[in-house]
Amino acid sequence: MRGYKTHLSVATPIGTVYAACNSLNQSGFSCLVESAGGALGGAFGGILPDLIDPPVSSLHRSSAHGVVPVSGAAVVWASQLDSWQDALRQQAEDHRWQAAQSDNWIFALGHSAAELLLRLLAGFLAGFGAGYLSHVVLDFGTPRCIPLIA
What we know:
single chain; mainly alpha
């Protein structure tokens, strides 16, 4: 896949930084976990457009790269991201509390794992959108550009 390394090397740090910025009001550990989730989300978002529209030729760009569908999805993502992250963080806090209150180490471990996964997911959502958008922006600068619709 041509450009795979470029998209991955740009999207991963963008996803990490965006997730970190979105989690600055969280505790240090939570911010770190969300940043790691942002790195994963950025990496996945950065390569997903080419997984949907495989780069078999220079004209491969279709709906996953189109300005109109990507812009529409980006508006939904940007408008809902805070509420999605707040819900995930609240669930993570509930699990953290349940882990602290549990007198059974197996249940405490399960709640701690659930908390970790929910915080990773909160960061993943931020990083995913940032990584996906970085892919489209990078492709916009190529000679074939990107299609308006698809």
